[in-house]
Design brief:
This protein is an all-alpha fold. 65% of the residues lie in helices and 0% in strands.
């Protein structure tokens, strides 16, 4: 907990839900090794983050490159 507070001081941001910070910083292999409860790792947050990035990048490509052929944007958004 102390390290999380130090981390927040360093980055200059105070998380409203400290549990999410712990979850975001917990890799699935560590959670499995420490027999933590299901959902304690960052996989669900990673999935959500990937979905948000896909939406944002797709919108950017759609709005800024209207002449790109269909499917071409999927190459970029999949990177």
């Amino acid at each position: 907990m102390r390290k999380q507070l130090e981390f927040q001081e360093v980055i200059g941001y105070q998380f409203q839900t400290p549990g999410l910070l712990s979850q975001a910083l917990t890799h699935s292999s560590y959670a499995n090794e420490k027999h933590m409860k299901k959902g304690s790792d960052n996989e669900r947050l990673e999935f959500l983050g990937d979905a948000v990035l896909e939406i944002v990048s797709s919108e950017f490509l759609y709005l800024n490159y209207p002449k790109l052929p269909e499917g071409f944007g999927q190459v970029y958004s999949g990177l």
